[in-house]
Amino acid sequence: MDSLLKTKDLRVNFTIQNGFLKELLSKEKKQVKAVDGLDFEIKKGEIVSLVGESGSGKTTTGKAVLQLLDNVEGEVTYNGQRLNQKDKKQIKSFRQKAQMIFQDPYDSLNSKFKIIDIVAEPLEINGKIRNEEHKKEKVKEALEWAGLKPAETFFYRYPHELSGGQRQRVVIASALILNPEFIVADEPVSMLDVSVRADILRLMVDLRDKKGISYLFITHDISLAWLISNRIAIMYLGKIVEIGEADKVISKSLHPYTKALINVMPKPKISKQKQKRMILKGETPNPSNIPTGCRFHTRCPFAEEKCKVEEPELTQYSDGHFAACHFAEKLLEGAE
Ligand code: SF4
């Protein structure tokens, strides 16, 4: 598969706003390293999941690759071209090919607009509507791709008249109308009933298979990531700590944090490998105060002295399977 999107040393820092008095007294403003040097690639027609707890930097990463933030450092290359936010023409063309689906279909749709106008909005903004007939034709096509049929029966309805699953399909239709190559889907099913989750996930996989759409799928749920992805990247406090083919990450996980996420999966009977029983200690540390050495050492049951002082590199252990843990091999052997 050819490469579609690549990041190199991707970073996003935020400055924390102190209260007025603190602002006056403190000499230095606190920085949060929300995304702390990410290198990853998404190939054409591939679904890569970014998995981690809340506060790990997943959503910020999604927005950063789509150039939706103005404080992004490092490189994002799309179809071999490095993106440059100052190049308005390039970014406009990129934004037509790359779309985002947000978590909350209730929030993402303007309740005052009819479905036809919501779905047509990206075409409108980009001056791509020739006339009313053309608008209807394009909206019909997008709604049908998103599984809302007969499409015309949805045109003049309002979001509140639809179910949660239908609303998320409208969000998807609106993302599809510009014929994108790449979608960042940020927890797209977490607000939906369990009964419709599988339908929306199936639709996304179908769009990959039939339209060749690639995805960055953001989720806190590693079992969903396993269902839908070609590859999984595990993120902890702004860094990728493990990445590889979905099956390998699940059945031969190398990083203790991945093992902990797998442990809370609903059906842990996932492989012949006996996963070490791991319960995470404590809360994720404050991202403005990232622990020294391995950033996971404050919660890791296998931490040794070395972990407190030396940051592990993301290292390849088998074909395309990388982890950032000093003892990854030892832990894997112990589990087999
Ligand atoms: Fe745990 Fe040490 Fe590995 Fe970090 S490097 S994950 S603290 S064993």
What does this structure look like?
The structure is a single chain. With 336 residues, the protein is of the alpha/beta class. Helix 8 links the parallel strand 7 and strand 8. The strands form two sheets. The chain has an eight-stranded mixed beta sheet, sandwiched between helices. It has a four-stranded antiparallel beta sheet with strand order 2-1-4-5. It has a domain of 83 residues. The radius of gyration is 21 Å and the shape is globular. It is built from 13 helices and twelve strands. The longest helix is centred in the middle third of the chain and has 18 residues. The structure holds iron/sulfur cluster.
Tags for this model:
336 residues, alpha/beta, 8-stranded mixed sheet, 4-stranded antiparallel sheet, 13 helices, 12 strands, 35% helix, binds iron/sulfur cluster
What would you say about this model in short?
With about 325 residues, the protein is of the alpha/beta class.
Strand order of the largest sheet: 6-7-8-3-9-10-12-11
Major beta-sheet overview: 8 strands, mixed
How large is the share of residues in beta strands?
15-25%
User: Oligomer, anyone?
Assistant: single chain
Mean pLDDT: 90
The distinct ligands, each listed once, are:
iron/sulfur cluster
Number of helical elements = 13
- Counting helices, strands and paired strands, the structural category is alpha/beta
From the spread of the alpha carbons, the general shape counts as globular
Distance between the termini: 32 Å
N to C succession of SSEs: EHEEHEEHEHHHHEHEHEEHHHEEH
Query: Spans of 5+ residues with little confidence (pLDDT < 50)?
Result: none
Number of extended strands:
12
Task: Classify the helix fraction into a percent range.
Answer: 25-40%
Q: Supply Rg.
A: 21 Å
